[in-house]
Design goal:
By secondary structure, the chain is of the alpha+beta class. Helices cover 18% and strands 37% of the residues. A seven-stranded antiparallel sheet has the order 4-5-6-10-9-8-7. It has a five-stranded mixed sheet with strand order 12-25-24-19-20, with no helix packed on it.
Length: 423
């Protein structure tokens, strides 16, 4: 019993302990003086003083043993103490005491999603010395707490404006001081507060070997800068092509090797509707069909917000301007052939840009033959030697300059193939 209590309630700071003992000694001295008589008021005053001291002791203990986060305006940093830098276990694994059935492992133990939605939980683990450099910005509130016997906190993110679709507006962090690690978890709206707390309370670390270890995050924004040599090596190379011109490209294949494809853009069109298209192939980034199309399949106007972005430390994002604009659908037909002797997946890493070089839409909204509900939506299956024409669609604002459209296709080695759609 005493051991359990000792674990539950940590030792109080010595200066507060001494003050309480001193007060008790005074009371004992009074008790040993038999001729001394106390008035009810004096007894009440002494009791009140002792209660006040005990209350301060509990508060101070809480401050000393739980506070490890500092919040300044909208930024949070970690205060882990000097002793945390030398005690990190070399290899650890993350154990789960509770995971709801609706959360399925995508890349366990790092990511769990709700079905194919892409929403759920994402975990990062930092050695404590690196966590000292970590900054979390756009923070609305911090609730410090204990997860089991470990210090922790729930951090709620506030960008200043409402998120479009699913958001990861909550984080929880746990300081495993016995191992010298800080765990951070991004929690999407698909997980309730109650479930989040049950998951967090069931987490633990265990020392293990290299083969079974959790991969430690070694990058903290601002903690390192890429060298000029690395930047030069990563610089994208541009290869210009025209409609109908066939070219070979190597691209990510969904496996640990890239695959070679023969590609030719056959043509494109700009439309006001989705008539004749398979609705199951349309991906709207979490939006509902009725937000984009009317009952006849025509594209609908919407309110477009232009944002003024804050730094997340001293300022939040705000809406600078709101205006009603229409939409257009750009459809591009591409002939793709798998030139390998094996079946592979073709990665649709495409963008649209206009004559000013502006990316007018960074995501694909339509791929013929692909189910938008699938986690492999962007990866098109090809049998060995298979050739087929695939239609890709991009929904764009109708007031954007659509002249001089260019389709940008990302290949291996950062090569960017740019196809002039007006050629």
């Amino acid at each position: 019993m005493s051991n359990n209590l000792k674990n539950e309630y940590p030792d109080v700071p010595e200066n507060f302990h001494n003050r309480v003992v001193s007060t008790l000694d005074s009371l004992q001295a009074y008790e040993n003086t038999s001729s001394r008589r106390f008035s009810p008021a004096r007894v009440a005053a002494l009791a009140a003083a002792l209660i006040a001291l005990l209350a301060v002791t509990v508060f101070a203990g809480n401050e000393v043993y739980q506070r490890f986060i500092n919040k300044e305006n909208y930024k949070v940093t970690f205060e882990l103490g000097e002793e945390s830098s030398s005690q990190s276990a070399e290899y650890v694994k993350l154990n789960f005491g509770y995971i709801p059935e609706y959360l399925k492992p995508v890349d366990a133990p790092y990511k769990y999603n709700v079905g194919d939605s892409g929403a759920g939980l994402t975990f990062q683990l930092f050695k404590s010395e690196l966590a000292k450099e970590l900054e979390i910005t756009f923070v609305g509130s911090v609730e410090e707490c204990m997860f089991g016997k470990c210090k922790g906190a729930v951090i709620r993110i506030d960008t200043g404006v409402e998120s479009d679709g699913e958001s990861y507006s909550r984080n929880f962090v746990i300081y495993f001081d016995d191992f010298g690690y800080v765990l951070r978890c991004y929690v999407s709206d698909a997980v309730s507060d109650e479930e989040m707390m049950k998951i967090a309370n069931g987490l633990s670390l265990e020392e293990t070997d290299k083969e079974h270890a959790f991969i430690i995050d070694t990058y903290v924004p601002g903690a390192e800068v890429m060298s000029e040599a690395v930047l030069a090596e990563n610089k994208k190379q541009r290869v210009d092509k025209n409609i109908g011109e066939k070219f070979n490209m190597s691209a990510f294949s969904g496996t640990d090797v890239n695959a070679d494809y023969s590609v030719a853009v056959k043509g494109f069109e700009i439309r006001d509707n989705i008539i004749g298209l398979d609705l199951d192939c349309i991906w709207l980034n979490g939006g509902e069909t009725e937000e984009y199309f009317d009952e006849n399949g025509n594209l609908k106007d919407y309110v477009r917000n232009t944002y003024e972005y804050g730094d997340g430390i001293n300022t939040l994002n705000s809406i600078k301007k709101s205006e009603t604009v229409g939409r257009k659908l750009v459809l591009v037909d591409i002939e793709i052939e798998n030139t390998e002797n094996y079946a592979y997946l073709f990665n649709s890493d495409f963008y649209l840009s206009n004559s000013g070089g502006e990316h007018i839409r960074a995501i694909i909204n339509y791929i013929s033959g692909q189910n938008a509900e699938s986690a492999d939506y962007m990866f098109i299956p090809f049998e060995a030697g298979e050739n087929k024409i695939v239609t890709f669609g991009f929904i764009v604002d109708d007031d954007i300059d659509l002249s001089g459209l260019t389709l940008e296709m990302e290949g291996d080695n950062c090569i960017k193939y740019c196809i002039d759609l007006n050629s």
